[in-house]
């Protein structure tokens, strides 16, 4: 029993192993010229290239956004550390002031 594939489920996905297409009866013979066929192939390749470039641009924009987010996070961390150190310095200054006042009073 010879099982052939359908359009939705071809027997093989390799175009070289598939049966050649039969000419359509609705189109006149020779309606597709080699120039237009190569133009279609070129347009398809351009479209594929454009889609690939779009994906690359999207990935580049995504990485750019992630780098900016990381930079903002680092800046926020530096600010938090600086504020913590400033409070620590203020408390140390207050302790020194109190210690000096206690030394003067005795």
Structure overview:
It is a single chain. The protein is an all-alpha fold. Helices cover 68% and strands 0% of the residues. The chain is built from 1 helix and no strands. The N and C termini lie far apart (113 Å).
What descriptive keywords fit this protein?
106 residues, rod-shaped, 0% strand, mainly alpha, 1 helix
SSE topology:
Elements (H helix, E strand, L loop, with lengths): L33 H72 L1
Summarize this, please?
With 106 residues, this protein is mainly α. The chain is 68% helix and 0% strand.
Strand percentage lies at under 5%
Low-confidence stretches: none
Biggest sheet record: none
Helix content: 55-70%
Instruction: Identify the overall geometry.
Output: rod-shaped
Oligomer: single chain
The tally of strands reads 0
Order of helices and strands: H
Helix count? 1
Q: Report how far the terminal alpha carbons are from each other.
A: 113 Å
Secondary-structure-derived class = mainly alpha
* Alpha-carbon Rg, integer: 37 Å
Could you report the average pLDDT, rounded to the nearest whole number?
80
